[in-house]
Amino acid sequence: MSELNFALTLLIAVFGPLLAIGYLQPILLVVLDALCVEPLPGKVGAHFWVRSAYVLAIAGTLVLALTFGELHGTVLDAVHRALWLAAAGSFVSIAIITSRVWGPVRQRLAKPPVVAPLGPIAAAAAARTTTASDRWV
């Protein structure tokens, strides 16, 4: 086993998912913040799930890299295999996270929007029809 191959495989297996989840983190926080109402209100629930995504993506990619990594070949073979495994591990992790997040989003989109009742002034303004004499031409 080449120590350089091992080190490169571990580095790629850790930094690949970090980059992928880091890229998705801003929008993932917004979506998860909208979905996390109970029992963790506010940004606490969203941050928990993003951190869980980091752990799952890195752990999954490390398992793949340690199991199937090219540790006995050339450095180029090791980097090639590590990049492939990091991409596959990140893809599967993000696909699982996305499918789990999309379920509640789809349910929320299927519900009819809740329309707040209009106050007396807004109701009168909405009921008023505009005629040609009311317009400034």
Walk me through the topology.
Elements: H1 3-35, H2 43-68, H3 75-110, H4 120-127
Which features characterize this protein?
mainly alpha, rod-shaped
Written as H for each helix and E for each strand, in order along the chain, the element string is HHHH
Query: Over all CA atoms, what is the radius of gyration?
Result: 25 Å
Portion of residues in helices?
Answer: over 70%
The residue ranges in which pLDDT falls below 50 over 5 or more consecutive positions are none
Percent of residues in beta strands?
under 5%
Report the oligomer. Answer: single chain
- Based on secondary structure, the structural category is mainly alpha
The major sheet is characterized as: none
Gross morphology: rod-shaped
